[in-house]
Amino acid sequence: MGIQLTFDQFSELIIPIIAGTIVVVLVKPFIIMACPGYLGYTKRTSFKTAAALSQVSEFSIIFLILANQKGLVDHQTVSLLTFIALASIAISTYLVTFSDKVYALIEKHLDMFERKKIEGEALPSERNDLVLFGYQRGGHEFISLFKKMKKRYVVIDYDPEIIDIIEQRKINYLYGDATDVELLEEAGVEKAQLVVSTIPDFQVSMSLLGYLKSKNPRAVAILHSDDPDEAAKLYKAGADYVILPHYIGSEQVSTFISKSGLTKQSFRKQRAKHLEYLEKHYGSLEKLTELHDRKLGRSIIQSVASLTKSKT
Fold first, then answer.
1. Does the pTM of the predicted model rise above 0.85?
2. CA distance 170 to 131
């Protein structure tokens, strides 16, 4: 079940190939983004879904080759679709790899693919002392703690199905993406005492830490990670504690908070203990140091090289 492609065929089909690739890589994703947006998902989720599907499936090529062998389609049609598939697969690979950077560039133009408010959305308090991002992965443990502490809190989640559960349980919530600055302002994150995220996405966690560092450095930041190396990076970026499921769960962390309070000082001992564990079992801190030294070495070499060139 093979097919022969030549550059002569490519030159003959260049215009249809370009047109077909544009339809697959640009038009198709916009249609796909409309569907999750209509169902209530955020524009970030819609974009990443569309980026992952912005290609022609290789199975369609197999079906076309079979159809060609049966005499249902001509050889030129098979060649055309094959070239489009190869081009779209190459482009979509880069699009998925750099999806966060691409999203940051076009985010402001994607508002049409996201509902501003879903039906029955709860309005948060003007100030929330406690903010929880993500409810599904151990979030209920923190909610139980928040209620015992009798402090104002809000839950932020972007999954419509989870929002329905939260609403049924009459929990104060906001619907949206943890990387949306406007949403963070609306939730009062810049005045919160404690910010907890059960979202394992490393880029989302780094975005939250960056926001807290500039807007609310006194807040205690508890984040979630499934990878020890990423946990070490989050600590280096300023996290007060990082939950690693195999090391400690949300239930133990919530118990610690109820006993120790909401100050950064109360977390220093636990933070140091966890860092020691990461270093002992994974060597994560050593890897970070090596990476930093390599970057520093490259910058020194580049500086010396630039000075040498300037003298010559």
1. no
2. 16
